[in-house]
Amino acid sequence: MSWVLGFQAFRFLLLPFMGLMPQDAYYYFYGQHLSLSYFDHPGMIGYILRLFSEIFGQSVFVVKFTDFVITSLTIYSFYTLASYFLSEQKLKRALVLISSTIFISILSFNSTPDVPLLLFWTLSVICLYKAIFENKKIFWVLAGVAMGLSFNSKYTAILLQFGLLAFLVFSNKYRKLLISPWTWLCLIISVAVTFPVWWWNYQNEFASFAFQSSNRTSSISKFQIKPKLFFGALGHQLFLLLPILFWIFIVFIFKYVKRAVVKFKLPQSKTLFLLAFFIPTFVGFFALTPIYWVKLNWMMPSYITGIILAGMFVTKKQLKAQVIISVVFHVALSLQVLFYLVPIKSDDTWVGWEELAAETTKLKEVYPNTFVFSNDSYKTSAALNFYLSDKVYAQNIIGLNALHFDYLKDDLSTLNGKDAIYIDSDKRFRNPDKKGEVDPVLQGYFENIIELSPIIIKRNNKEIRKFWVFYCKNYQNKK
């Protein structure tokens, strides 16, 4: 237990030193523009960030604190769930396993839909256990609510319903529940709770569902084998779980699959229950990795029951190795956060955004009555929106799709005739020079475009980030 408290204390102490991530800013932006749902995800993470900001105020620390609190609740819920399956000794080992992982640190530091998803996923499995194995009818209702809230966090939660039905289909003892009205009441409630997401999609031509499915379905249907995608996904999982835990996953997957295929023998009911919420998500997504880029967080929900299963297999020696590797990784993480030893050639970083906002404020003083916009999906626009009092726009200004910025009902024609400041991140940052060219798309919306001196962000007297800046005159919206 001391290791669990130690890892959580470490994460909490690091919170004040963590800068704003673009994802933090974007999902905070969700909460500041309340809606039944949003273009790229349901809104649960935005609602939770809004709640915490209303209570504790707006600051980067409050955003990080929100993630830390919700993830701590997930760990506690995991402990409760694991206690139904493991002896006291194995329970402690499982708790150390999950607390030592990198994915728990990521969820504790970075706002994403996975933060509430993991909590409500765990609560869903707890309620389903109570309903099925303890025959407590009220938990069918609570499971439906929890599954609905999971879906309202992220669409991959649909695998909860799939896991439930898969367990009932393959379980000789509990198959009769397939015709139980309580099972179907649970599923109906889970759908009813998701009504806001469906209604928002209905009102917006099912834009979110199409965004999350159409391009991915098209890519998968091409079925082009790409070994780099597989090895990239493998590397991500080794990082998130750390090698020891990942290896234990592989061992028990092989064991149970071999027993089922060779001996036609399924595990006992409680183990089958855990596998039902692990195999479809973990193995299912892993099977796609040779043909599609599976994001590192898609498999996270499977870790909950997967780590409980790992608790049945992990040895004392393996647990010790897991903790040692974890400590090394977390010390390296703390050094990177505190001293920024390795430059990150990406906008997915926690450094530079506040300094960029300060420099942008100075620019607006030099060029009054201008509006600010960017063109990098959401990252710069969301970060500046967090820090600046004036509204910052995204690439919908120049007629490009801009995720949920497109659904704010902004009348862009009111900006006609105004001048603008365009901020463009130089992700690779090879030199401090101007860009020397103007994006042709910009030229179709402004009368004249002048490149200004770039904004250079420094830390410890070292240049670490660069943003190109353009002064754009006389905006004309074409719609």
Automatic annotation (TrEMBL):
Keywords: Cell membrane, Glycosyltransferase, Membrane, Transferase, Transmembrane, Transmembrane helix. It comes from the Bacteria. Residues 40-200 form the Glycosyltransferase RgtA/B/C/D-like domain. Coiled coil: none annotated. The keyword Metal-binding does not apply. It comes from Asprobacillus argus. One of its GO terms (molecular function) is glycosyltransferase activity. Its EC number is 2.4.-.-. It is an enzyme of class 2 (transferase). It holds the Pfam family PMT_2. This is Glycosyltransferase family 39 protein. The chain crosses the membrane at residues 61-79, 91-109, 138-170, 182-200, 229-252, 272-292, 298-315, 322-342. Its main location: membrane. InterPro entries: LipidA_mod_glycosyltrf_83, RgtA/B/C-like. It is a multi-pass membrane protein. It is found in: Cell membrane.
